[in-house]
Amino acid sequence: RHVDAGGIEPRYSLNGVISLSESPKVVIEAMLTAMAGRSAWSAGVWHLHAGAWQVPELALTADDVREGGLTLATRVSMSSNFNAVRGQFVSPENGWQPDDFPAVTSAAYLAEDGGEQRWRDLSLPFTISAAMAQRLAKIELELARRQMTVKLAGKLGTWAAEVGGTVTLSYDR
Questions:
Q1: pTM of the predicted model, to two decimals?
Q2: DSSP class of residue 22?
Q3: CA distance 107 to 66
Q4: Which among 171, 83, 85 has a CA at the least distance from the CA of 136?
Q5: Contact between 45 and 154 (Cβ < 8 Å)
Q6: Residue 66 and residue 151: Cα distance in Å, rounded?
Q7: What span, in angstroms and rounded, lies between the C-alpha atoms of 85 and 83?
Q8: 116/139 Cα distance (integer angstroms)
Q9: Which of 42, 50, 99, 102 can pair with 35 through a Cys bridge, CB separation 3.0 to 4.6 Å?
Q10: Separation of alpha carbons 4 and 17, rounded Å
C-alpha cells in the first residue's frame, strides 16, 4: 500500500477489461504495465514478477562463475536512453477514457544528458490512478538509468536461481 497526501491506495492494481480476440502475449504485456512487471517462461511455466523488492534467493561469488563467464555492461546507447517519462492512463474523471498523467522528469538525468530532453512514452491501459501512473513512470525511469547488466555463465550451483528471481553477486574484480 502507498500513502499519498492524505490517502492510501494499493501500490499496484490491475483495472480493466480484456478482449479474448487479443493474443495472450498482448494481454499479458498490457497487464504487466499495471505492476511494473516482467514475465519469464521457464520449465513450461510463466512466471510473473511485480516491480517490488524481493529478498535475494541466492548469494553468488566468484567461485560460482565459470572461467571467463562474466561480462558487465555499464551503459546503454544514447539513442535508447531517456530522462523523462510521460504517458496515458485510464481516468475515471475523464469518463474512463485515456488521459495524460503528470510527467515524471529528473533534473539530474537531464543534466547528465547535456540538457537534451529525451522522452519515453508510456501507455498504462490497466491503471486508473494518476498517482499510481506516476509511480510506474518513476520505476520505468529509474530502471532505464540504472545501466548495469551482468551476464554470467555459472557453474552447476547457479541453477538454484529462478528465472526472474533476485540474487546477490560478490565479485572482487
A1: 0.82
A2: S
A3: 41
A4: 85
A5: no
A6: 12
A7: 7
A8: 21
A9: 50
A10: 26
> What is the dihedral sign for C-alpha 112, 113, 115, 121?
negative
Three-state secondary structure string covering 26-93: HHHHHHHHHHCCEEEEECCEEEEECCCCCCCCEEEEHHHEEEEEEEEECCCCHHHCCCEEEEEEEEHH
> Which residues, at least 6 apart from 98, have a Cβ–Cβ distance to it below 8 Å?
88, 89, 90, 91, 125
Cα–Cα distance for residue pair 2/11, rounded to 1 Å: 5
Count of all residues that appear for the chain in the document? 173
Count other C-beta atoms under 10 Å from residue 113's C-beta. 16
- Give 42 or 155, the one with higher predicted confidence: 155
User: Distance between CA 39 and CA 32 in Å, rounded?
Assistant: 8
Minimal CA–CA distance to 118: which of 106, 101, 129? 106
169: helix, coil or strand?
strand
User: What does the pLDDT look like over 23-44, one tens digit per residue?
Assistant: 988 999 999 999 999 888 888 8
- Cα(33)–Cα(123) distance, integer angstroms: 8
Residue type, 31: M
Residue with cell 565479485: 171
